[in-house]
Amino acid sequence: MEKFITGDIWKQANKIVKENENKIACIAYVTFANLSLSNGDTLICDVSDYAIKYKQTSAQTLQNYYKKGVKIYSNSQLHAKLLLTNSVLILGSANLSKSSANYLTEAAIITQNDSVISQARSFCYNLQNEALPLNKRDIERLLKLPTIETPQKPKKVSGIRRKRFGSNYWFISVFPLSDKLYNKISGYVEPKIEEVSKQENIETHGISFIRWRANTPFAHNIKEGDQIIMRFHNKNKTQSHIYPPVTILKKETRGGFIYLYHRDNTENRIAWSSFATTFKKTNNKKSIGVRRRMLSSEDVQSFKKVWDVI
Fold first, then answer.
1. Helices 297-309 and 272-283 meet at what angle, rounded to 10?
2. The domain 2-162 is classified under which CATH number: 3.30.1130.10, 3.30.870.10, 2.170.130.30, 3.30.420.40?
3. Interval 82-94: pLDDT, tens
């Protein structure tokens, strides 16, 4: 599993990680116990007197974890935020705090890649070795330290927190719009193209869009972040080209249709006939055989082999 998430990172982590898995959490600042940790788990964070004094880390929250049997370590240089188990690594920006949980724009990567997990395990091992273990007496001392209120940022919730970015690949056939239809929708799509092009820092001709009926499974399921492999037909349907994967940067719904904006990839297109021939040779198959719109990981690798050859 490889996934990109936003919103309340640690709440989502609780749903992904099995309860009985041993967990190592390396999270710089801890003021809110919204990550499920239990007896035998490890929490490494900044428990310096400075962090406690300025409420970057909460002694009360640490005590609550400690009473559950969580092993607490302090490393004042820590700024990383990750959760590691035997089977998954979650690495991102979020501290254990109410602000991260409720309104800050956070992001994280979830991976089950064995090599990455192995490297993260070595990182945690070294981090724990240079950290200071805390006992009951240490935490009781921290609870007595005076704290100082610091000004808080205005609490404004970004719409990005509610988004769920896609990680799927899709294979679709598309056709050019008629001049009449394009002229009808140009007043809507051209400002959007300009908006996306500015965001991507490229010319407007470097952005294209796909228009698709909204009341279809494809339109319902495709998300920003998904990638599309297109077979683009000419107006007469006598020729077609296939385009390498492009990322959906923006998805909007208007007038019963969805509009998917992406970078133009015309310069890397391949004639369908050449692609089909190379595909069969490269993958030792008699036909492409991909008819469904969502591609499996095996399908994707088969497609990518062709661009590696051509």
1. 110
2. 3.30.870.10
3. 999 999 999 999 9
